[in-house]
Write a structure and sequence with these properties.
The radius of gyration is 19 Å and the shape is globular. A hairpin with a 2-residue loop joins β9 and β10 (187-195). The chain contains 10 helices and 13 strands. It has 294 residues and is α/β, with parallel strands linked by helices. The protein has 2 domains: 8-159 and 208-245, Spore Coat Polysaccharide Biosynthesis Protein SpsA, Chain A (Alpha-Beta Complex); 262-294, no CATH class. The protein has helices spanning 39-49, 64-69, 74-82, 111-116, 119-122, 146-157, 218-222, 235-240, 263-274, 281-292; strands spanning 8-12, 33-34, 37-38, 54-59, 100-104, 127-130, 134-138, 160-166, 176-184, 187-195, 206-214, 248-252, 255-259. Bound molecules: 1-O-phosphono-alpha-D-glucopyranose. Residues 111, 131, 134, 175-176, 195, 207-210, 235-236 line the site of 1-O-phosphono-alpha-D-glucopyranose (G1P).
Length: 294
Amino acid sequence: MSQKPIRKAVFPVAGLGTRFLPATKAIPKEMLPIIDRPLIQYAVDEAREAGIEQLIFVTGRGKTAIVEHFDMAFELETTMKDREKTLEVLEPTRIQPGNLVTVRQQVPLGLGHAIWCARAIVGDEPFAVFLPDELMIGQPGGKGGCMKQMVEAYEQVGGNVISVLELPEDEVSNYGVIAPGESRGTLTEVRGLVEKPKRQDAPSNLIISGRYILQPEVMRVLDRQEKGAGGEIQLTDAMAQMIGKQPFHAVTFDGRRFDCGSKTGFVEATLALALEREDMADEVRAMARRLLGC
Ligand code: G1P
């Protein structure tokens, strides 16, 4: 079956990042680096690997550094060239003119509201959503990044596709949780969705891990601005209303996920990626041993 291609991705980046204060007082949390790449860069790389062309950032006040990061830095480039330095390191920050669009979320009314703010730019086509806090890293030599795997699944089944992963039962209350139907390989039918359920009410321990492929009709549901868990307009609630009307599937990502919305997750990601980098793995391994006294 041939599906409409996924050309656009929405990145909700308006959050205040209070968990990382004071680091995030003047710097957007999406600009905090894992080694030498800001978090947002990993999400954008994953999007481009999946064939996505247009990036839509839903921003707010104090978030201009994110846009600057993907802009051409004329003085920097000229100075580097004069000093005969290679510009290769800047390659991932280059976006074709016109392929980065920003919209503002003026009031923090929830994730569903943030996505809704992008409705005019998304228009009438399916689109992807990336929550940059969730760092998804494909297996070395494996099937690629999370969105790439999701797009492949979407080409088979169409409709809406979200990424899920299994967590211990006592952690699921912080997330959106799916009620799973039949499974085939890494693909699971989604029969229901609940945002931040109480532990005893959770329909499974499969949580939504921050990557979505959605049909534009979700925007019509979000138009109603209905509030859900925590008094916020929840994307999960809007998606739940699409079940039964359109195909809805979950993909279990073949790769690793780091929760970079938490400080320990951030440290874990930094260490894990450093241990894989040819330019520093040996040194970091020796350093970790020394620190652990083993
Ligand atoms: C959001 C979503 C939730 C999802 C989570 C992934 O929650 O609402 O469904 O499981 O991201 O990180 P938040 O972390 O914004 O509370």
